Each structure stands twice: as structure tokens, then as C-alpha cells.
Amino acid sequence: xxxxxxxxxxxxxxxxxxxxxxxxxxxxxxxxxxxxxxxxxxxxxxxxxxxxxxxxxxxxxxxxxxxxxxxxxxxxxxxxxxxxxxxxxxxxxxxxxxxxxxxxxxxxxxxxxxxxxxxxxxxxxxxxxxxxxxxxxxxxxxxxxxxxxxxxxxxxxxxxxxxxxxxxxxxxxxxxxxxxxxxxxxxxxxxxxxxxxxxxxxxxxxxxxxxxxxxxxxxxxxxxxxxxxxxxxxxxxxxxxxxxxxxxxxxxxxxxxxxxxxxxxxxxxxxxxxxxxxxxxxxxxxxxxxxxxxxxxxxxxxxxxxxxxxxxxxxxxxxxxxxxxxxxxxxxxxxxxxxx
Length: 340
Fold this sequence. Notes:
The chain is built from 13 helices and eight strands. The model has no long low-confidence stretch (mean pLDDT 92). The protein has helices at residues 14-23, 33-39, 50-64, 68-86, 108-126, 142-155, 184-199, 215-226, 242-254, 263-268, 275-287, 306-317, 321-335, and strands at residues 2-7, 90-95, 129-137, 164-173, 203-208, 230-233, 258-261, 292-294. The protein has one domain: Metal-dependent hydrolases (TIM Barrel), CATH 3.20.20. It is of the alpha/beta class. Helix 8 (215-226) links the parallel strand 5 and strand 6.
């Protein structure tokens, strides 16, 4: 199985983060491991929205991972745990290096290299193919995002070492509530960034249509301006109507864009009401010949793994489960950015 949508900030066990926190002598409000672990468990009845989810947990985990040693250990543990729990054979790990510089104490180069080294060790030890996707941030300045683009190009495809592929792609992530995709000036600048990355050989994925704040309109803007290889979530396609839906379906199919589905996190962040909603969405995508793959997103914040995500959807799909889940695995292999 391939996990193409997994965030470093939400994929590291709390026990590992606690050890990093203690070993580095970081000052936090947490007095013991139990309190810390509970604070990093995302419960659907406590999370109010996607923005709440991103703000509540990621600021803590990104701060803890803000050193080369912490970034390397974290990257290694993501792969090790994914393999041991779900026998994952390929992972594309995404993170924002700008948010791990500890206010300028470290450089982006140092953080990126550290993650690479952690993934190289993990690929050697577990035989898992890995790659890095650097995330831009809607909540960062355009200047900061340009710095991430330049860093990605600098570190692109370091070379496959024991299955570790280095930087293979660019992502856009962060809160959708400002609906920046509906801003022509902002999208114009971001499209130039993405085109520069693509020209350097990097692939493009983009968080959009994860919530109604960007919705079907945001998906259309992103596809028309950027033409991404994949879209993170895209679950709002289910709410598109009439000509807008027809246009989106046609573009997704004709441009062979793969939707990265993450069932449990969508439930936790309240962008879907239940798992049957995702199952119906999977059927709709298959019926319209739109590529999709199932992923974990933030497995340790929401206590899941890739095997469990497949089981969740399989239980809802019933008799069609095997064919539709096999199709997800096929799409993941066809649309991955890494080489195995």
C-alpha cells in the first residue's frame, strides 16, 4: 500500500515527541506524558472545524520538530510505524520547513537535510520507498513561500538511495477559511511559484476543496491556474451542482488528476458527516473515471493507520469493496511522485 498524503506534524507518535521534548529541554505547559498524549489526541467531539484542528495541534508538533535532530527522528519514526502497523510500501511525507526553523535558529536547508537523512535510514531498514513533498502555507507570506519553492528546487531528487527519493513535490496547505484560492492576485502569484517548481522537475499537489471555504469554486480555480498532478482531499466535489460539477468532473478526468482521500481526518474536522458519505464519494469517482487514493493524513493525531483507513471504507462499500479498494491502490501506484 502507498500513503501519498501524510503530514510529518501529525504522523509521529506522542511518545516519540515527548522524548524529543524532554531531551531538548523545551518549556511547555505539559507536566507529564499523560497530559501531553491526551492533548495530542484529536477527538471528533472536541474539534470544531478544520481551522481549529490545524491550530490546536500543529503549532505544538511543529515546534517540537524544530531542530535537525528532532526532524530526523520524526521522519524515521513515521516510516517505521507505518510499515510495522500497515506494511506500507511507499510514503510521500509532506511538511513545511519554514515552520520548523525555530524563529530563525535553524536554516531550512538543515531541516530538509535532516528529514532526508531520517527517511534514508528508514528506507534502508524497512525497504519502504520514500519521498518528500514540501508544503507551502496559506498562512505564510508570499516571500516565505517563495523561499520554500527555492529550497525544494535546490534539494529536488537528491537521488534514490536505498529507496529514498529526496524532494519530489510541492504542496499547498493550511487554513482554507480565508478562501485565498478565490483571490486572483494571490492565485496568480502562486501559479508562478508552482510553474517554476514544475519546470525544475517537481510534481504538484494542492490542498483544496477540503472544506466549503474553498469548495468547488476553489477546486476549479486551482485546476485552471495550476493544473496539479493531485489534489489533497477535494471532498467538496460532492457538493458541486449542474454545470460547475460537469466542468470539474471533466477537468479531473481529462487532466488525470488524482484525489487524495483521507476518511478519518475528514470526519474529525467535521467536513463530512459520516463514513458512508466518503463511500458514496468513492463510488461516484469510480463511476466518473476520476482517480482517487486512500491515505492517512495525520495518523497519530487521529489514531489510525493506512490498513485501518482501507478497512473503514471497505466496510461501507460492501460487495464492491475489493474492486474499489484495488482501484485506489492502482491509482496510488500510478500517481505517486516517487520511483521505487
